[in-house]
């Protein structure tokens, strides 16, 4: 019986260590991607010469601007649907490229909003994200059903955003942004719990575990970026 308890304790300790190592890797990759996005966004948003690369002479997007706008979608689709075929190094390249192009596409926030409101909103988003990440990691409650509800909310946001693209209603935009903050804040807790379970069920150190850490980082990156953007739309101070 003592040997059984000792073996069980060893297994439980190893599982806990593997989970912590996996989650540390996920957050490290996410932080690196966010850093790349933030630096790129700031450089393009505050440098008129770089910003002109994204805008045509008529005021719309340039060819490069359209590439920057659409490339992140392509990277996410490639990473999601070709996950099994992509090697770990290539997956890393795609993720870093995604963060870079996303930074370029977000550079316009520095034209629209004041620097102070961008900074303060970023800190608020970081606080909300961090709090929900802790909830997702520590809670004993199964968030699977909650996650499904959040995904339904996400689908609703996408449909409402498409409709509002034509209606251009400020009131509807406000409602969408409010729901968006709630949905992606909830998804943060759900995604962290899901990743924690993945970390507990893998053998850390092989290529699959490394690839899963990249995809986990992508999920949390998207959660954070969306929380930040929806908060900015709600509370950001626009330039005169």
Q: Could you please describe the fold and organization of this structure?
A:
Helices cover 83% and strands 0% of the residues. By secondary structure, it is mainly alpha-helical. The chain has one domain (2-235). Helix 1 runs antiparallel to helix 8 (170-200) and helix 4 packs parallel to helix 9. It is globular. The model is unreliable at 2-11 (pLDDT under 50).
Radius of gyration, rounded?
20 Å
Reported for the largest beta sheet, the result is: none
Shape summary: globular
Order of helices and strands: HHHHHHHHH
Low-pLDDT residue intervals, each spanning 5 or more residues: 2-11
Q: Distance between the terminal alpha carbons, to the nearest Å? A: 74 Å
Domain module count: 1
Tell me how many strands there are.
Answer: 0
Given the helix and strand composition, which structural class is it? mainly alpha
List the total number of helices: 9
Strand residue content: under 5%
Q: Portion of residues in helices?
A: over 70%
Whole-number average pLDDT?
91
């Amino acid at each position: 019986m003592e040997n059984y308890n000792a073996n069980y304790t060893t297994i439980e300790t190893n599982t806990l260590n593997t989970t912590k190592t996996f989650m540390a890797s996920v957050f490290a990759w996410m932080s690196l991607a966010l850093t790349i996005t933030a630096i790129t966004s700031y450089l393009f948003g505050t440098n008129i010469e770089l910003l002109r690369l994204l805008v045509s002479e008529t005021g719309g997007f340039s060819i490069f601007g359209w590439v920057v706008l659409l490339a992140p979608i392509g990277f996410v689709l490639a990473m999601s649907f070709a996950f099994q075929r992509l090697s770990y190094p290539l997956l890393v390249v795609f993720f870093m490229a995604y963060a870079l192009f996303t930074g370029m596409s977000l550079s316009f926030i520095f034209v629209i909003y004041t620097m102070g409101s961008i900074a303060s909103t970023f800190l608020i988003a970081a606080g909300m994200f961090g709090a929900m990440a802790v909830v997702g990691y520590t809670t004993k409650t199964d968030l699977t059903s909650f996650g499904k509800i959040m995904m339904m909310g996400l689908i609703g946001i996408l449909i409402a955003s498409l409709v509002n693209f034509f209606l251009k209603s400020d009131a509807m935009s406000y409602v969408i942004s409010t729901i968006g903050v709630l949905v992606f804040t909830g998804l943060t807790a759900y995604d962290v719990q899901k990743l924690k379970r993945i970390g507990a069920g893998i053998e850390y150190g092989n290529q699959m575990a490394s690839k899963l850490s990249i995809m986990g980082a992508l999920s949390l990156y998207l959660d954070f970026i969306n929380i930040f953007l929806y908060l900015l739309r709600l509370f950001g101070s626009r330039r005169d």
